[in-house]
Amino acid sequence: MLVTPEPSPSETRDNVTFNALLWALSRPGLPQDLAMPGEVSIISALLDRECLVYTADPLLMPEILRTGAELSNIESAGHVFLGAMRTLDPLADIAIGSDYYPDDGATVIIRGNLGSGSVVKLTGPGVNGAVTLELNGLPNGFWKARDARQRYPTGFDIFLVDGARVVGIPRSTTVEEI
Fold this sequence. Notes:
Blueprint: H1 9-26, E1 32-33, H2 40-46, E2 52-55, H3 61-66, E3 70-71, E4 79-84, E5 107-111, E6 113-123, E7 131-136, H4 142-149, E8 157-162, E9 165-169, E10 174-177
Parallel strand pairs: 2-3, 2-4, 4-5, 5-8
Antiparallel strand pairs: 1-9, 6-7, 6-10, 8-9
């Protein structure tokens, strides 16, 4: 008789979160539902002992350390948790990879507010024509600073987290402030 193992609640949570993150990056600008609010489910789903991680939010450190991931400076980190951004300064130091190794570009997780604030238009791969998105909580000049660092295939991917919702903006997406 073949017995299929039952996933644990944490495995189910991580799978739901991982699927939401994949869909968020493959459909830029369209909100996806996380398994639980905040960055903790993202940390659990993405990080393991082979990851270098930077966080600007000390409250996330216990969860990051629980995964076995190694804390790093922002320049070397493959995963960057910026929390609620107040300045543009961190963007200058985030890893963007190289033409030979674009996959060395970081994944950046930022808290924001979806559905209110300034409006941006997203175009590019995975976007059916264009998607408009209302965002609040990012410092003024964020998108210009991002664009200054991006030259596809180099750059960094962004997840904007608002409670239990997440929006993905991959490095291949063009963002225009409206």
